[in-house]
Structures are given as C-alpha cells and as structure tokens.
C-alpha cells in the first residue's frame, strides 16, 4: 500500500517534469520496500507530506504527452506499480540487475536526440543507489548518454542522495534542471581483487568496520544501528584489527606527488569532493578538502573525539590530517576493511599497494539550472 501510494505520486510528478523537454522521457523507479523511509511510520508520514507538496507544485507545469513509465516496469511488475513505472527490489544486487536490464532495453532503442531519455529514480538507501550507479557506470558510453539517475533519500542512511530532504530532490524534476556528469571513486588493488566503485565516499579502517557490522545486523535491528556500532567500534576495533603503520601517497590530477607520510591510521576516507558525509550525515569531510586521515589514539581520546565527527569538529584536532588529492595510494602491514558507500571488502597483504582514485566524469545526474549558473 505504501509503495503503491509512493509510486502514484512519483508518476504524477514525472508526467509534468521539465527534465530534458526536447526528448521523450521514460522513467523507472527502483524502490527498496524495506528501506526506512517506507517502513518507519514517522519517516513515511514526513515523506508523504513532501510528496503531496511536490505534486501540487508540479501541477503548475503542463502535462507531457511524451512521458511514460518504462516498458520493463510493466513487464517485471504487472499492475499498479508497473503502470506507474515502479519496480521493487527483492534483495541484494537486485537494483543492479534491474539497471542492467534497462541498459539492455535502451541498447535496442533509438539513441541520441531522436530516441527517449531514460530516468532512473532510486528510492532506498545508499546501497540501492550504489547498485544502480555501479551498473550504469559500466554501460557503453553511448548508452550512458541516454540515462540520468535521481537518488531519493528513502533509506536510513542517505548520504549519497541528491538531497537529504525528499522535496528538494523532487524539485529537480519540477523546476528546470540540467544534466551534470558525476565521477566515481575507484579502489584498485595489487591483486586480482576489485576494482570497486563508490559515488560518495570510499574509505578504509574504523568506519569500514562500523559499516561492515551494521550491514550484518540492520535487517534484524530496526532503526539506525550505525550509531550503535560507532560506540561499539571505539571499544573493539583495535582488538579485532591490528592498527599498524599505513604508508600513504597523494597525487594531483597531473600525477604529481603532493603528500607522502606513514602513520598508524584509524581511518582514511576519500570523497568525490569535499563537504561530504557518511554514516547518516557524519561530517567526515567538513570543508573543501576531499581526503581525511585520522591517526590511532588511546581509547579515552577516541571516546572524547567521537562526537566531533558528527559536526566536523575533528578537523582541527592534532590526530586529523585533511588534504586534497585525485589519487591516494596506500599500503598496510595488516588486513584492513574498506567500504564503498556502505558495501565492504577486506583488503589483505597481497592487495597492497591499493589505490583510491577519481575516475573521469561518467554518469548524468540532475542539478538545478539556477544553482549551476551561479556556480
């Protein structure tokens, strides 16, 4: 019932969207029905109010006769949901497989300005959008030009969404928007492991340990279990993973070394840009610099500083090193967990040196036209 209602509102907005008005618009909503934005009553009530408000705003736009839900949605989910362009996910990896099917369908259609433009709307948490973006990143370049992704904040963690507020994200469909290509972050290793991709923050160390354990219990423990594991990790992390020296080299866009150091690190986080959050809005990158390294510290000091990561207050502490880089290479003596927008992998000795780097601009996302013109 909740998903039917959600899909109806989204379809109404898409039928009056001002996105790419020069081309037929085809939309698909990839929705995780287990996401907190649907299952937690208080959140759904807030989202429903935002959907109603945005539907009213969209009524100011003329209806589009060239907008339609994707054919795939009707095939995979006959009935109300499919008719509204909504495909619910059924488990891990499903959002990626849906996106791959949409890519295959687009490859059989007319491409370019004569063909339809495909909008994928992800409605879930960071995992749902990561799967869709990952699949689209690996699509042929000509196909990618006919797609854009809008990430709605319907999960418990929405750091990679296009806005933390649902109404602000939906306004990208209601008001004039332009397409802007986003990069990815790529983690490659010295072994055959990977490469792995992220579209917000890619990091190693303590925060990846928190993410790894959150993922194991989040289906059994409702609410934001990330916060619980932040407290537990402060006590347990260096008992489970030995925190040894990590050699770090940073490079700029031309490949020149800009920084090199070796230290015992609790975490190393690299963002697509500065001013990014993870772990339900923890301000790990509080300013324009896109890399944060935090040194190992005694337990009492960890407990004292832990709360500062929510506000960005860790930036001026002696244990923190913030800098900018296009590529960060690192080597560790001990196994260390990495996380890519909430998905984790264990890096072991044979995987080093490993490298986190910004890729070329690759996937269309939406930006408000007026905001982009003003910089």
Write a concise synopsis of the structure shown:
The chain is of the alpha+beta class and 375 residues long. Helices cover 34% and strands 30% of the residues.
Question: Based on CA inertia axes, which overall geometry fits?
Answer: globular
Beta-strand content bin: 25-35%
Find the CATH superfamily of the largest domain: Probable inorganic polyphosphate/atp-NAD kinase, domain 1
Separation of the first and last Cα atoms: 41 Å
- Mean of residue pLDDT? 92
Main β sheet profile: 11 strands, antiparallel
Q: Would you count the extended β strands for me?
A: 20
Counting helices, strands and paired strands, the structural category is alpha+beta
**Tally of contiguous helical segments:** 14
CATH architecture name of the largest domain: 3-Layer(aba) Sandwich
Query: What is the radius of gyration computed over CA atoms, rounded to a whole number of angstroms?
Result: 21 Å
CATH topology of the largest domain: Rossmann fold
User: Class of the largest domain, according to the CATH hierarchy?
Assistant: Alpha Beta
Portion in helices: 25-40%
Unreliable spans: none
Quaternary state, please? single chain
Integer count of domains: 2
